[in-house]
Amino acid sequence: MLSGNLDQVELKLGKVVGKHWKVCSRLGSGGCGTVFLVEDINTRSKAALKAESHNIPGGSVLKLEVQVLRRLEGRKHVPQLLRAGKKEAYSYMVMTLLGDNIEKLFRLCHKQFSISTQVRLGIHILFALKQLHEVGFLHRDVKPANLALGIGEHDSRVVYLLDFGFAREFIYSGDGRVELRRERFRVHFRGTARYCSARTHHRKEQGRCDDLWSLFYVVAEFRGPLPWANTSNRNEVASLKETMPDVRLLSRSPSQLLDIPTHLRELGYYDRPDYLRIFHAFEAVLEAQGIRFYDPYDWELEPSYKKTVPNTSVRTIESTSTDRPFDSNRQKGSDRSNRPNSLESPTTESKEDVAGYKIEDFKKNELGF
Fold first, then answer.
1. Which member of 75, 99, 304, 369 has the greatest number of CB atoms within 10 A?
2. Per-residue pLDDT of the chain (369 residues; tens, 9 = 90+)
3. Pick from 151, 145, 163: which is nearest to 104 by CA?
4. 277: which residues sit within 8 A by CB, 6+ positions away?
């Protein structure tokens, strides 16, 4: 059923879609469809259903999202596609239900995270982007609103990448080979001006390095407003990105993170980023400041924060991974006061396992280029 706005889909509460998924509530809407909370009528598992009208201007975005999620199937710490289908008036997909997005949590924490939270989130986002890149896709719109916590005992402290409406496949498969697609001379602007790379402003073809520039700007903003936060002029934003010294951009951040933009400037469209080098920049902060991955995130210390917990009578669809986060040394200090020592953490620690991510996860090159 379509609303008065022909590009939005409204489904009645209680409606069963695909003979399986009962609509429980409406979660939100945007330019790429309407999202509903749904329940499996057989198992009572909760999930998210995104519906997109066939009348949406510019063609289907959902089809692209389905393609990306199918490519990511079975990977650790990524949303899983549970079902996709097509109705007379709309198409839909059902995927893993996620919790609060980072933009909301950032506002809850008065738009400034501690270094502890900043760096740990950076590792989560880096891993999520590497997972996407390894299956041949770029995100092209990395921002706090497109990053969300999982739901469940372990997943609620893991950050997931979502909303692949601007994604682009950067590989070509043919004749039994997988190769990089050729760089286009000039392209349309895709992304969010605040977080996209300077190359993107100049309509250059985005590569893996451009997603990581967005990661860098997001992580820098976690410590305070970006220098271009108050301007909507894209040319002015681009100029500031090209002229702003890294030391100033990271003035509230640990100096170890300066190696990230240094590395990114070495890369062009065809170059593969050194994900392990970037991970080591974050890891150096953990070790220098004695930060543990099981320490509370800033929002967990806010009195108004209510952890997203599913109804105890309902099973949620969670990651099948049983990996537990690694804890570095016990936290020695923090730039936030009244911080408890830690959340409940495992009794054993492994230097080779960081938040369910092994060092090898950042080393391996699955595409080969």
1. 99
2. 555 455 689 999 999 999 999 999 999 886 668 999 999 999 999 999 999 998 877 778 999 999 999 999 999 889 999 999 999 999 999 999 999 999 999 999 999 999 999 999 999 999 999 999 999 999 999 999 999 999 987 789 999 999 999 999 999 987 778 999 999 999 999 999 999 999 999 999 999 999 999 999 999 999 999 999 999 999 999 999 999 999 999 999 999 999 999 999 999 999 999 999 999 999 999 999 999 988 999 999 999 998 764 443 334 444 333 333 333 333 333 444 333 333 334 434 444 444 567 888 899 999 999
3. 145
4. 259, 263
Q: Which of 141, 295, 298, 327 is catalytic?
A: 141
Kindly tell me the burial class for residue 4, based on how many C-beta atoms sit within 10 Å of its own C-beta (0-12, 13-18, 19 or more).
exposed
Residue type, 203: R
Assign domain 15-96 one CATH number from 3.30.1460.10, 3.30.450.20, 3.30.830.10, 3.30.200.20.
Answer: 3.30.200.20
CATH label, 100-305+358-363, candidates 3.40.50.300, 3.30.70.20, 1.10.760.10, 1.10.510.10: 1.10.510.10
Residue 90, φ and ψ in degrees, nearest 5: -155, 165
Query: Would residue 100 show up in a list of annotated catalytic residues for this protein?
Result: no
Domains of the chain, residue spans? 15-96, 100-305+358-363
CA distances from 280 to 3, 111, 131, 172, 179 (A): 49, 26, 17, 31, 28
Tokens encoding 318: 């969670």
Q: What is the pTM of this model?
A: 0.87
Helix axes 115-134, 275-289, angle to 10 degrees: 160
For residue 88, give every residue at least 6 positions away whose Cβ sits within 8 Å of its Cβ, in sequence order, or none: none
